[in-house]
Every structure is written in structure tokens, then in C-alpha cells.
Amino acid sequence: MARLLVFVEIRKRHITRPSLEALSRCREIGGKSVAAAIASDAPAASFEALARYGIEEAFVATDPVFAPDSSIPQGAPLAAALVRIAEQAAPDVVVLPSGETAREILGALAVRMAAPALPDVSRFDVFEGGVEAARPVFTAGFMARVRAEGAPVLVSLRGGSYAASEHPAASPLRIRDVPFAFDEKQSRTTLHKVSAGTSGGVDLAEAAVVVAAGRGVRDEQGKRLIEELAALLGAAVGASRGAIEAGLFPAASLIGQTGKTVSPDVYVAVGISGALQHVAGMADSRTIIAVNKDPDAPVFRHATYGIAGDLYEILPAWIKALKKKAAASK
Amino acid sequence: MKFIVCIKQVPDVTSLLRVENGRIDTSAGRMALNAFDASAAEGAIAFAERCGGEVHVVLAGPPEAEGALRKALAMGAAAGVRLQVREGDAPPVGQACAQMLADHLRTETFDAILCGKQAQDTDAGVTPAMLAALLGLPFVGNAIALEPDPDGRSDNHLLVTRQADARQEITRIQTPCVVSCSNNMCDPRIPNIRSVMAARKKPIRTKIMETPVGLPALAVQRYEPMPGRPPARMVDEPWDEALDVLAPYVKIPSGSPAP
Fold this sequence. Notes:
- The complex is a heterodimer.
- By secondary structure, chain A is of the alpha/beta class.
- Chain A folds into 2 domains: 183 residues, Rossmann fold, CATH 3.40.50.620; 120 residues, Rossmann fold.
- Chain A is built from 8 helices and 18 strands.
- A 7-stranded parallel sheet of chain A has the order 7-11-6-1-4-5-12, sandwiched between helices. Chain A has a 5-stranded parallel sheet with strand order 15-14-16-17-18.
- In chain A, helix 7 links the parallel strand 16 and strand 17.
- By secondary structure, chain B is of the alpha/beta class.
- Chain B has one domain: 3-Layer(aba) Sandwich (Rossmann fold), CATH 3.40.50.
- Chain B has 6 helices and 15 strands.
- The longest helix of chain B has 17 residues.
- Chain B is globular and about 65 Å long.
- The relative contact order of chain B is 0.18.
- Chains A and B meet through helix 3, helix 4, strand 7, strand 9 and strand 10 of A and helix 4, strand 9, strand 10, strand 11 and strand 14 of B.
């Protein structure tokens, strides 16, 4: 049986949702031959969650450089730690959750492990000696069926491709400490300043619901409606390029090929026309609800439910109706 | 600062492309400078105009790909190099492409290598980090801004703003370095006729190289149309179908009794 190693990304002391999805998919394929790879200043905080997701072995690189307030950009130390972990774990397949972290280190891992890399796959299977996968290409215009052979093969898995599912572990978690030390004085990069991301404070990659604004959201009043609906749903706020260029939303909330790729349970697209570049960042959402004035807007080709109408009338009515529905179900 | 921008020519993804027998038919469309690379070139050119310096461009590809080099020259790059594989060699894919670029860049002097964060055809984005690893240089990925080091005593650092997953990071990076650029960094300029004419006189050197062999790469078995979604169900007031999807997520405002 192929040995699978999953890089478990920790952000603000929590395992990210795409990491849990990657763990769940690997457990489905590999059963007991799945191990987690963790780089952290305080790894023990994550052990309980790993066990809950059926993981019985974890390779752990512990170093203060991985602290949430570290002054060292994480790319270089993470890549170095994962190379050390892979040397010890000797996996056939290494799976990383897709995202900016994986994008920054995947190429370096491929060079240092002399391994083929399958970036941003939406499906993958392991066979003897390699991996077969499907990955969107051409601005998510086509799906490429790809194959790579080698040991290891590196895979980064798009969020939302598989469900994260808990699964009791048969035996207690075995911790393998991997000797690792990062010399911060040798680092050729340092963090000069860090600024927080998206509006509303809910992380786009983690949110079960995303409310996203497009060019149709023209002003502060429209922005308030978006934020009110998002707050009511505990949703993260996203935006298309149009809404960001209008200066209403921070650049960090950009969803699309050039921004973030999200795949929440529900994606509410408000006043978004549905340009290819935007759709590439949200097409994997489970349910898409689109509101647009123009009944011919391309966004309706991707939506589960379409509402043709004026968002300035519809959103206030929805907020009222949802509050009523919630009260009624109590 | 001397910048070298690595660029690629790709099929215009907005043109009509079709899948036939598992291959993408690009014959109906035109070729274009990869949009992310155009942003990297613009970022470098604007930086050099503001703070001094020069910009060179390099591309691995056949003679037909020179159009992308000319475009970058028209935007303001000073000179270009086209890496051409030896006759009979296969075009470089995967790590072989990064290796070929790295082999060339080792013979050049530069302060920073810029790349687009990914190519619009493969959407892979692994080459920039591969280049940095092969050259042993520090790397920042997904840059949205590029500034000189405010600590002006040394000009061997850059300030790079990176869009990370949940925050923006301004990194002080020592040169020489590799940076991959988001197209949120800038809007590439559209060269005017005069610049286009001037670019024709700028030098493009062709360098014949062997395709590196034996390096790992993925193999594309076939392309398929994206699995489509069924057409949207259009919902009218009172929007029950849509609202019933959202209702389970409604957060009870604090202060009200728990359900």
C-alpha cells in the first residue's frame, strides 16, 4: 500500500479546513498508511484533532520560527521542514492543501525532492508507483487528466474537492519527532509588516458561506447590505475585481483566478456578472445563489439558483425574511 | 536594480478554444503574452522608471513566441533573450523548463528575477519557486507590490507585499532574489505605436540550449470540457427555494435566547 503524507497547515493554532479535507481524502485512499506532517512551535495543540480525523501517525518539526507572530516569512522554513519530514517518512505521495502557502513552496519541494508536482488538483487517485489526477486549466476552462510517476509524487488539493469527515482512529497517535532547527539569522527574508485581511473577519477559505459583491454593489449602502447579510449568516465577505476597483472592498477579499479560490457550502454572488476570471475562483462551491439585475448575466450559467432583480430591493427583503425564518424555526 | 522578467507565450484564453479528441484545439485562437507575466514586466518597468534600473526579458520557446518578447520590449524592457531548444530536442516541460531558465540565468547578472505567478494555459504556478530553489535564491510568491527598501543605506534589499491566504505580508527580501507577481500588482500598460516601432529595433538574442532530460514532470493524458452545472433555477419572490438554503446558517443575534 502506498504511503501518504499530508501536510497539515496550522493557522492561528487551528488546522485549516482544506488540510482536514486532504486528510480525509487520503484516509479514504490509504487507510492506516496515512501520516500527517506538522511544522509548528506548539504542535501538541493539534494532536487531538488529528486523532479525531483517524490519523495514527504524525511527523512533527518543532521550531519557534513557526509561531503565529514569527518575524520570518513561512515559505522557506516550511519547505525546509517538509523536506526533512519527507526524508524520514519516505512517503510515496505527499499531499498539501492548495492555497498561497502550497503555491509558494510546491516548486521548491519538487526541486529538492526531485519529485513531479501536480498543483491544484480537484480529484486524485493513487496507483502503484504514481498518482492520477484531474486539474482545471486554461482559467478553469478545461479539465486536464494528468498522471505522474515517482516516489514521492507531490499533489496540492483544491479546497472543497472532498468533504472533511471525522473518523475515530483505531490506535493512539504515534508522534515522530523530526530534528529541525531554523537559523533565523541566516534568513534572507524578514517580515517588515503584516496587515490583516478581509472585511468582517471571517476567513474566506474557512467559511461555510461566502457572500460576494460585484460591480452591481455601487456604494456604501450596498456594501452595508452585503455586510449585514454576511453577518446574519456568519459568512465571509468576498468581492469581484469590479467591487474592489470601486474602492468598496479590500483587495484581500478578491475571489477569482488572481485572488482566492473558495468552495464554501453556499456562495451568494450579489451583483456579479460572472466573468471567467471570477468564476474560476468559486465554481467548486456546493450551492451557488446569484442575484443580478441582468437576466442574461453569465453568472446564471454557473448558479444553482438565479434571482433576476435589483439587489437594493432584494437584500433588505432577504435579511428580513431570513430573520423571520430563523425565529420561526426556534 | 536590474530586473530579468521570465515570460511565456500562451494561447489567448479568451479566444475560442475547443476540446477535440482529448486535445485542446488552439488553431482558431491567437497567441498572447501570459497576463501574469505582463504584470511582472509592468511591475519591473514601473519600478525602474520610478527608482532607476533596467529591465530585461527572457522566454523559452519557438521563433513564433518572439511576439511575446516584442510586446514586453514595447512596454519598456531594454532587451530580450529567447531560449531555443536544439533541433530535434523535445520542448521542455515541468522541471526541465525551470532548469533551462536557471541554466541561462546563471550566466546573467541581475538583482531580481520576476515571474508571473502562473501561466494562463497550465494554471500551475510552480516554475517561480523551482527557479528560486535551483538558483539558491530567496523567494516571495504572489506579490502585489514592489518597493525599494526604505532603509536607503543599502540597495541590496526590496520590499515585497505578498497576498497570503489570510493576511498581507510586507517582506524585506535580500537581492538577488526571485519574486512571482500577481496581476493585482498593476495594470500592464498598452504600448503606443511609437513604442511598438521602437521595440522593433531593440535587441533579441537567440540562445540555443539542450532540453534538460530525466527531470520529473506530469503527463497530460487528455483534456476534457469542464463538467457543467445544470442550468440555474430562476427563483422569484418570495425566493423560498434560495432562502431555505441560507436559513440553516442564520446566526441568532447575541442577546436573544438560545434555540
